[in-house]
Each structure stands twice: as structure tokens, then as C-alpha cells.
Amino acid sequence: LNYMKTTKITFLALLLLFGGVQSLCAQGRQEDGLPDRNKQLCTTHEAMEVYYEANPQAKAEHEALEKFTQQYAQAHPVTDNLGKPTAAKYRIPVVFHVYGGATHTFWGKTVTKAIVVGALADLNKDFQGLNDDYGTVNSTFASVKSTLDISFEFALKKPDGTATDGIDWKTTTGAGYGNGSGYDSKIAADAWDNTKYMNIYIVADLYNDGQSTNSGVCWYPDVSMTTAKTARLVYNGQYLGNNTTKEFRSVFTHEVGHFLNLAHTFDTGCSGTGDGVSDTPLHNSTSLGCPTSQTSKTPTSDCGNWQVNAENYMDYNGAFDCQKM
């Protein structure tokens, strides 16, 4: 892949570049609108270990990808006129499969075309540093913040070549599509070509367990999932775009980050590489809050660092109103 400013690539190339293993993690919110700390906790690491045990080729694929990513970044530095690293211009075609029955209602909230359009617009702002609080990032991390020159765009053609607005309205519920298995045949039947589209499934009941407060779940797409047509992001329609608060909308950005192989900032605790990016300080668990001063975190509880990057979209702070970068 090259860094031409207007490069347009097939989604298979993106999956091979960003591919990896399943990420079984979701954020939740209580019905009264306040953060649910219990549902905020993520068992990704444990789920990964189970998945690796059953799919050793996925672990090898992920490790090879991480090695390639680090080597490629070092060998192909790209900077803007200020000397800061920049990313290539990638345009990713997206299809929203919207379920929720005939009225597309999710726990009392209706998903309309305007809601979907607004959600995609917010996503692009977050990735491109156009969110209105990007300029207020904590001074500790202001010098290392950067944007991703990625544009998520509604698909203009269906797999059969006919025109579309990128929204696929379904009259079924899609309940259970957030599960790791058991629904694969249904998901694959609804999917648009995984090598050409990012498939987003908007449902109400992610795990078909009657729980309303699970907001979203995503997988790191790998070759086997792409082949099986099950690579996807599954999201609760009541938390999409203007159906929820301004800050909690960024949970959607968090899940899309996983689709592009971005890890939680806290995934490996104090003994590993964190999110795999050297300018993110190690910390041992999700912040679940927005520390603002150098002494608001203690070194002993956060891997010897006085402060963690709690404003990072890949931490777990969408329910605490502090995600910015």
C-alpha cells in the first residue's frame, strides 16, 4: 500500500493490513443514562486467549500483522509540513444493516436515515480531529495527539451493482448478532461482500438475552472471518448518533477503532506493550473516569505513570464524557 493522498483501496487490502483476531468487548450504559461500571469492564484478553486456543492460526496471523505494522511504520515515515506523522487518505465504503422490526425501534428509540447519517458524520469528525473538543486535550498528551486521514463513506453500489444509499433496512430483529458464534449463517446471509464493504449491524439485543444496555461489540477482522462473511461491528440502535448523549456517541468510534485493529489502551496491563503504540503510557485497567491533573493517578496503580491517556477513544470513557483523541 502506498501513501498517495487520494489512494482508494479494496477492503480486502484493509482487512489484510488491519486484520487480526476477534475482539469480544462491549461497553454498556444503564437505562437511567448514567454509566454502568460493571458493563464497562471488558474481558477481551481472556476472550482472546480462548479464541487463540481454538484457532492457533489466528494468533500467528495477529502476531505477524503486529510485526509487519511496526516494521512498515518505521520504514515508511510520512510527515506533514509541520513535521508530524500523517496517515494516507483511505476511503472506506460502509453499509449499515438496520434491524429493529418494521419500525426500526430500539428500546424506545427509532433509527432513521438522519440518525445514521449523523452517526457517520460524527465518526469522521472523531477520526479526523474535527470533534469540537479536540483542541482541549490534556496538555500532557497535546503534543502527541494526531489524526487519522480516513474517510468512512456510505456505499453507493450494492454487491449486485445497483444503486444504494448505504443503508440496508431489515424488518427482522438481528437479535444475537453480537455473539461470537451461533448466528454465523444469518449474519453471512445478510452481509455484503466483506472484501469490499465494512458491514455494520444495528440491532437492539446484541446477545439475544433481553439486556438493553449493551452498546456495541466488534471483531478484529481476520482472513477466516472475511471468508465466512462474518466480519462485522454490531451496535445498539438506542445509542447510535443523536439517539444518545453527545459524548456517549463516541463509543461508536471506539468500536470502529477495533475494526481497524486498534486495541484498548490498557489491554496488556503493566507487563506488555499496552495498545502497541509507544506514546501511550501503560496502565493496568480502564480508567473509568477523566483524570485532569498530573497527580490524579498514582504511579503504583498505573504502571508507574502519573497519568494515563484517559481521553483516548480506545480507553473506556465514552460513558464518562471525556473521549477526545
Q: Which structural class is indicated by helix and strand composition? A: alpha/beta
Secondary structure tally: strands: 9
Give the integer mean of the pLDDT values: 81
* Poorly predicted segments: 1-24, 29-43
Topology as a string of helices (H) and strands (E): HEHHHEEEHHEEHEEHEH
Number of helices, where a helix is a run of at least 4 consecutive DSSP H or I residues:
9
Shape: globular
- What integer value in Å does the Rg equal? 19 Å
Subunit arrangement of the protein: single chain
Distance between the terminal alpha carbons, to the nearest Å?
25 Å
Question: Can you tell me about this structure?
Answer:
With 325 residues, the chain is of the alpha/beta class. 26% of the residues lie in helices and 12% in strands. It contains nine helices and nine strands. The protein has helices spanning 11-18, 37-40, 44-54, 56-75, 113-128, 139-142, 184-190, 223-228, 250-259, and strands spanning 26-28, 90-98, 105-106, 109-110, 150-154, 167-169, 198-203, 214-218, 233-236. The strands form two sheets. Strands 1, 2, 5, 6, 7, 8 and 9 form a seven-stranded mixed sheet that branches. A two-stranded antiparallel sheet has the order 3-4. A hairpin with a 2-residue loop joins strand 3 and strand 4 (109-110). Helix 3 (44-54) crosses helix 4 and helix 5 packs across helix 9. 40% of the residues are buried. Residues 1-24 and 29-43 have low confidence and may be disordered.
